[in-house]
Amino acid sequence: MDKKAAENMADLQLIQATRGEETIPFADYLRESGNKMMDRKVLAQRLEACFAADTDIIAAYLFGSVAKGTAGALSDVDVAVLLDDAVAGTDYFERRLQMMADLTAVTGSNQTDVIILNESPLTLQYAVLRDGLLLTCHDEEARVRFTWQTIIRYLDYQPTLRRYEQAVLDRAGRGVLLDGYNPHRGAVEHYRRQRKKIKISANVNV
Question: Which of the residues 45, 64, 193, 205 has an alpha carbon 20 to 30 A from that of 170?
Answer without folding.
Answer: 64
